[in-house]
Amino acid sequence: MESYNEIIKILGGTTLVLAALFGFIGKVWLAKIVENYKVNLQQQLLEVQSDIDATNKKLNAKLQSATYISQIQLEHEYKIYQEIWVLLVELKTSTLRLRPAMDYVEPNQSQEDRIRERLQVFAEKFNAVFKALEHNRPFYPHEIYQVLDHVCEKCRHESIDSEDIERNNSEYYKEARKNQQEIVALINSACDSIRTRLGEVRVK
User: Where are the domains of the chain?
Assistant: First the structure.
């Protein structure tokens, strides 16, 4: 105990020793805090860099997916879509009129004659769309052709189903509503496909 007190006296007293001890501990504690801060900061920087890399990959993917075509080709393709879309709207109208939910019935006209008359109008609109699709087929993407051809196929099926008037009204018009909903959905999908195509092309 006496030797311990002598050592304290040699070092400058208890207060000085404690101050030196606390100073040492403080430096160690501060160094630990700084180290933890560096680690956290480094982690945040890595996360930010990861987000930047992911964004760059998405942008590069969009740029790479862009299709570069000439101005003349773009204008020609755009005119094709305009022509087909007008005809497609007319086909949609004539198809939905084959078996409308609410119908005007001419007293002197039989159901067979009414269907036959509407099918004639449908056939004209259908043939116009089919002709436009096939004549312009080499000048727009095959993916767009497939979507539009699917619309035509569904409309054709509805025209065939509408001729089967021997079934009861409930089943007949239930099928009509189902077909009409699918046709409208397909036409909306075709519209989205055309918009996507025009949004992807770039003029070179």
Answer: 2-64, 68-203
